Amino acid sequence: MKRNAKVSTAVIRRLPRYYRHLSELQEDGVVRISSSGLGKSMGLTASQIRQDLFCFGGFGQQGYGYKVDSLKEEIGEILGISRGHTLVVLGTGNLGRAIIQNFRFSSNGFRLLAAFDVNPDMVGTQVAGVPVYHTDEMEAFVSSRQVDVGLLTVPIAAAQQMGDRLVRAGVKGIWNFTNYELTCSQPGVVVESVHFSDSLLTLSYLISQQEVLEKTQEEHP
Amino acid sequence: MKRNAKVSTAVIRRLPRYYRHLSELQEDGVVRISSSGLGKSMGLTASQIRQDLFCFGGFGQQGYGYKVDSLKEEIGEILGISRGHTLVVLGTGNLGRAIIQNFRFSSNGFRLLAAFDVNPDMVGTQVAGVPVYHTDEMEAFVSSRQVDVGLLTVPIAAAQQMGDRLVRAGVKGIWNFTNYELTCSQPGVVVESVHFSDSLLTLSYLISQQEVLEKTQEEHP
DNA sequence: TAGATTGTTAATCGATTAACAATC
DNA sequence: TAGATTGTTAATCGATTAACAATC
Fold this sequence. Notes:
The structure is a homodimer. The first copy, chain A, is an alpha/beta fold and about 220 residues long. Chain A folds into 2 domains: about 70 residues, Winged helix-like DNA-binding domain superfamily/Winged helix DNA-binding domain (Arc Repressor Mutant, subunit A, Orthogonal Bundle); about 120 residues, Rossmann fold (3-Layer(aba) Sandwich). Chain A contains 8 helices and 9 strands. The N and C termini of chain A lie far apart (about 55 Å).
């Protein structure tokens, strides 16, 4: 793998999509794929795919294309899937529990070690085999087990404070599901947010545009 | 509001963030904000904010800045928050139920009318006051009530098929929570996806980079 | 009025696309 | 070998930043 000078976030955000598409191709028994073939199925240009992969080195063979297996493997490596990252969940409300029960952490190279909550009804129980401890024990757990990531699903009012605690406890990243824009002063700690609200409002904008468009067409056919 | 020629997706994706930040400012009792002030708190340049807003028209006052209330109002209007959009949920598994119970649809201008599932244990029940019907009844419901959006939380294997059914039933948009990249042939129908996996893998990449960086620093201090 | 800050055009920067030699 | 397709550089396009006149 090439020493990656500086990869733009646009490229980084496409890497998981490549990985996902290659996994699907693999399941479908496809052995080789060209940049134009992959581009067609993903809605990207062949040129862009080659340019993206070029950031990390040459994974293909001229005149042949890319081997699905090994390209998937390489991109997985770039994404850090085999690094054995660990995470804990903060907050075991509806959303926290749903993610614990549904999300395939291991397919993404993560091990979910524990969950934490302040609710005495939850503390001491298990969710899908994952033990729930009291939030007071979070710091000790995270630092002794060197946990990489904290998944935040606490109420929005507690989000920033809990984020700060995670950072102080030594996590490398926060996966933020609260609808709050965490600020993280600590350099070297990454915050990645899933903002449901932003996503729905984007959809709202797009269908509103569509509505206006259709109305205009009715008036001026 | 200006006739918006063609607004780039980069701008569109920032609109919900503006809306969110303006709401927070409003709650904090802030009355006016300058582009540089807003930029500082959001990590954007003042120039970019003015350029973004310029896509839709002049909302500020020279020498003064922007009134938080009215700017929030205007952006909400652009996003279609007051259009009374409606939606239904497909799939009432852990994730579907968690979203129904947790997500503040009304704050985003949506009314959640019903949920659908094939599981006989769910059909006929309510989740947070939302009635659950059998999926067979979805088409009739969506077309008679002119539902705007279908939220997909069905198992991945059923995703594409259920997406197709929603489109045929006449929705304008699909909010996709399955880890499947829906293809939608129908022009005028919008698909907006929340890919947990892509988000976590991006985080995985970023912390892996950080790990490499720190290791290098240890070796060459 | 003087100061501040927008609206808006121009300049710069970065990302995408095109092109083509290298080579499997 | 001929054909195909990559790796990689150059050209283009679009998004961000800078600048400044307009004006509150």
